[in-house]
Structure formats: structure tokens, C-alpha cells
Amino acid sequence: MNAEAKSPDPSGFLALPPAAFHILLTLRDGEKHGYAIMRDAERMSDGTLKLGPGTLYGSIKRMLGDGLIEETDERPDPELDDQRRRYYRLTGLGERVCVAEVERLRALVRRASNRARRPRLREA
Fold it and tell me: d(Cα 37, Cα 27) in Å, to the nearest integer?
């Protein structure tokens, strides 16, 4: 049996909490440390999502446990970085879950847009 066959179905992780979704989205660009994830998530959401340390690291802990992300051993040059930082990256499962969530949200927006275009029924 190959690894793909044993991998959990991404739909089992949906709907993602906003913090988890934004963490996955930021990590699609490559590995990052916690502060960079917080900064990128805020920028990506036009400032509407501000991840505090408790939310960020609580989400990271759950996502590590679920196998959506992993901590990396690779480090930038110590002269350019704080060695206490932990760096994270997406796993294959995390990538599939992120894509599945994007598709779920796309379908939801499509249904909501279609519903908003229909004339509203009035009660008699």
C-alpha cells in the first residue's frame, strides 16, 4: 500500500478555522517562522485577521499533530536569524487540505452569489 492510499481524506479537515486556513495559505509560499506567518496572514487578509501568539501557536500545535505542517530542521545563516525561531512548512496533506478548502469556499461564494441575484420572495 502506498503512502497516498494511507493519507487521510482532506475533506475530513474541512471547514478550516480562519487561523488554520491563513497559516496554510501563507506556508504555500515556502517555509516561515511564527512571526512571519502572523505578519503574512494579516497582510493577506487586508488587516482583518490578526493572529495573536496564543491563536497562532495553538493552531500550529494542532496542525503539527494533524500532519498538515511540519517543523523544518533547515536554518538560515545564524548571523541573519535568531536560532530560537522555529520554521514550518506544508506537508503534502496540508497542501491538499488547503486546496480543498479553497474549492469549498469557492463553491460557497458561487452559491451565495447565485442566491443573492434571485428576486427575494415576499411573505403573504
Answer: 8
